[in-house]
Amino acid sequence: MLSGMVELNEQAVSVEDLLPLALTSYGHFTSMRVGTDRRIRGLSLHMERLVRDSRIVFGVAVDTGRVRDLVGKALDGRDGPCVVRVTHFDPAVNMAHPEEATGPQIMVTVRPAGGLTPPPLTALSVRYERDLPEVKHCGLFGALHARRTARLKGFDDALFLGPDNHVTEGGTWNVGFIDEDGTILWPEGPVLPGVTAALLQERTEFKVAPVTLDEAKTMPVAFATNTSIGVRALSAIDDRPMAVEHPVLSALRETYLSIPGEEL
């Protein structure tokens, strides 16, 4: 058996349970930051993601009530902020007959969360577009290879470029910009609709437009968003330094931190 921090349907997961996922990577997931009060920002959006992605990946619905119950039980006895990942996959998946994978199960993993004020990160532009980008799926090879490429060259992470040289998203985060007029700009393109980005878009004025790599480098500010880090400045894109402080960026951080968490 593996660590009790990994549970499949409320039971300690076994190597045999995980082998099909390891061999195929066929499944989808969502990750949620849980506060010390066991509340989760954007919980309803995370549940909507699981429902939407399950219909695309498996053609079946997800019992979000059961997901909440399993997450709650996995959190019992844990102190401090943490990140919970809910992975939805079918242990019976077969590479020859993936259409028969119609009985997905719920796996819950828990890990400690880092601070919500992480230092700025540097990003290397890498040409890469995820398969089925609208789904938060388990096929992470391409994204991790891009991140590895960036880190081997001295950067913190990768910033993805589409075939048209337009910026799309980061390794495991959405990217946004603040232009010369102080307007929040989200790049248009095939990206994963992040929960943190969605929460911010519900509460701020912004625009969506295509952003080329050259245009991205002329922006005064760039930032990354995801559930683990909240809002994090980019201090450089390739060889172009970026400002890490800006009134709009500060307001964006404050807006995110002011969003109340939802009860499980």
Give a short synopsis of this structure.
29% of the residues lie in helices and 30% in strands. With 264 residues, it is α+β, with helices and mostly antiparallel strands. The strands form three sheets. Strands 7, 8, 9, 10, 11, 12, 13, 14 and 15 form a nine-stranded mixed β-sheet that branches. A five-stranded antiparallel β-sheet has the order 2-1-6-5-3, with helices on one face. Strands 4-16 form a two-stranded antiparallel ribbon.
Provide a descriptive summary of the structure in words:
The protein is α+β, with helices and mostly antiparallel strands. 29% of the residues lie in helices and 30% in strands. It is built from 7 helices and 16 strands. It has helices at 15-24, 43-57, 64-75, 141-152, 195-203, 213-218, 247-258, and strands at residues 6-8, 11-12, 27-34, 39-40, 82-89, 105-112, 121-127, 157-161, 167-170, 174-178, 184-187, 206-209, 221-226, 230-237, 240-241, 262-263. The strands form 3 sheets. Strands 7, 8, 9, 10, 11, 12, 13, 14 and 15 form a 9-stranded mixed beta sheet that branches. α4 links the parallel β7 and β8. The protein is globular and about 50 Å long. The mean pLDDT is 94.
